[in-house]
Amino acid sequence: MNSEVLIQLDELEACLKAAGLWQDSPISAEALSSVEPFCCDTMAFEQWLQFVFLNKIRDMVAKGEALPTNMAIAPMAEMVLSDHLYFNAVHQCLKNLDSTFAKEC
């Protein structure tokens, strides 16, 4: 499963870049210290995907840690990105990831 997850994470990253939702500059440590779901008080959802989600899951895979088995990120994308031109592509990447993680249940 880990190789499948890494491939899907790479696809999500490529999709975010193609959609113009990728940030080249680093995010502040203060923004990363949020304890709110999706760091919604300190960053945009696409920033959370880039700076928190992608990094955390890749780190977990690299360390051989157990990956989450109950994850639903696609619905959040529906709430915050539905008006974006590339919503369908980003949403599909997230639905694929949600499905892959659910297979472990």
TrEMBL record:
UniProt xrefs under Pfam families: DUF446 (PF04287)
Domain of life where this protein originates: Bacteria
GO process terms (BP): single-species biofilm formation
InterPro entries: UCP006257, YqcC-like_dom, YqcC-like_sf
Domain YqcC-like: 5-99
PANTHER family linked: CYTOPLASMIC PROTEIN, CYTOPLASMIC PROTEIN-RELATED
Protein's name in the database: YqcC-like domain-containing protein
Species the sequence originates in: Pseudoalteromonas peptidolytica F12-50-A1
